[in-house]
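Sat 14:20. Reprocessing the chain from the morning session after the first attempt stalled halfway. Input below, unchanged.
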Amino acid sequence: MRRDYIDTMKADGFGEFLTACEAIRNCKFVIAEHKISGLLKAIADNKRLYSMFGAALYGFDYKLAFTEAIGNGVFLLPSEPKKAIALVFRILLDIDEGKMSLQNFLEAYFYSVSVNESYARFCLEVIAPFETYCRTMFSQSDGMPELAEIVADSAKAYDNVNGKFRANLKSDALNCLATLVEIADSVITGAIDRAEFKACINGLTRAIGSDDYDGIISAFLGVKYAVAYFFRSSRSVLEIYKKLEYDIKHLAD
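Finished this time. Tokens:
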């Protein structure tokens, strides 16, 4: 995301975050990932919330904390609220980024007779206490020196947190585009048609490489219609396109 995005973030307010938590707890599994994205957006759009999570994540060892949480074959939140907040946030982020399958996570640590019952357990044992801990930490945030430091340098912190994520998005998007070119070379028989398709791909590749946010959106629209025209019935190309669409959406935010 762009550094100037920090200037548009809301300065205060907790209602949207609580509403997003409630939406996660009350929905069915089938739309859970969409609700998780909504919760992360509520955090990213609020300066005070974003900084609060930055304070919770400062010095946090995600790999170690996750290993400890599943040490006995079941998932147990850390007893320390700040550590629990950081762990749940990172898990939700991994789910949203596609690094962790929510269904696999539920089946491994919250197994029940149905996926909806597993999800209900997850909400009861993870999301509900996470929300409670966040309420407490948010109410105390004015007196946290480390939070004040993060707020004072929020633009820099925002770049540091998102830099690696953006790099991964760019790499994945470029890999998707390279794969589409390979497929076009073997599937699109007409030389002119193939050249037109690859021109669309090359335009998006250049925009991504130069971090041209407006250019990314414009070029992606060309790729979108080109894929629909040449590969409308190809399931494999559609899967690649969905990954590319996810990358572009977050790159252009």
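Residues 1-11, 143-148, 150-155 have pLDDT under 50 and may be disordered.
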